[in-house]
Amino acid sequence: MKIVTLSAEQRDALGSANARRLRRAGRLPVNLYGMGRPTVNFSLDAHAFALGFARGNRMFELEVGDQTQVCLLKDVQYDALGDHIQHADFWRVDEDTPVTVNVALEFVGVPVQVTGAVIDYVMREVRVSCVPRRIPHHLEIEVAGLQVGEHIEAKDIALPEGTALVDPPDTTVATFHYKHAQAMEEDEETTEGDDDAEPEVITERKPDEGSDA
């Protein structure tokens, strides 16, 4: 994964009002933690960060004056509508020490069409461990050869040299099965469950109340 270099400016004035002032000026408030050192507050060019983030970059090198620090993006906080990034947290890393990160999966190909069969992509990312500059941007998984009833597990993913799988190796990543078989399993689960139970509501993301820190 490419490490994006961003110019950072130290910010001494904290609080919601100062954070809003920075965002109006096109700056993004960020915090930097880790490696047993004090937390430092910076601001970044909001557009430059958003561009790197949208391209899937999670490793950044912050430049402050003549000093640089490689860091891993740990958290991004959005506004109430979930549209605009309000704040970001970074974690210092040692370039020679492995880190555990989530890497996106890219599925390649399509199984031979079989009436009534569907392919489920159970996972969209996996956890791996490697040194920062070896973090892959994504991992490809070929699914064209799947037959009905077959599945792919995490251990089947081809990893680059120096990269180790962190998720359990027998975790199902994708499966090709008859759709009616899945429906039967869901019916059985519904029968066994509480008819009065309320469905769980899952949100894609929500703003963090501490985004003005």
Report on this model:
This protein has 213 residues and is an alpha+beta fold. It has two domains: 4-92, Beta Barrel (Ribosomal Protein L25, Chain P), CATH 2.40.240.10; 99-192, Beta Complex (RNA Polymerase Alpha Subunit, Chain A, domain 2). The protein is 15% helix and 39% strand. The strands form three sheets. A six-stranded mixed β-barrel has the order 1-3-2-6-5-4. Strand 4 and strand 5 form a beta hairpin. The longest helix has 14 residues, at 179-192. It is elongated and about 60 Å long. 19% of the residues are buried.
Tell me the number of structural domains: 2
Count up the helices. Answer: 3
Largest beta sheet: strand ordering: 1-3-2-6-5-4
What ranges have pLDDT less than 50 throughout 5 or more consecutive residues? Answer: 195-204
Question: What CATH architecture of the largest domain would you give?
Answer: Beta Complex
CATH superfamily of the largest domain: Ribosomal protein L25, C-terminal domain
Largest sheet, in brief, is:
6 strands, mixed, barrel
User: CATH first level of the largest domain: which class?
Assistant: Mainly Beta
- Gap between N and C termini: 29 Å
Task: Throw out a few tags for this protein.
elongated, 4-stranded mixed β-sheet, alpha+beta, RNA Polymerase Alpha Subunit, Chain A, domain 2, 39% strand, Ribosomal Protein L25, Chain P, 2 domains, 6-stranded mixed barrel, 3 helices, 213 residues
Q: What's this model, at a glance?
A:
The protein is of the alpha+beta class and 213 residues long.
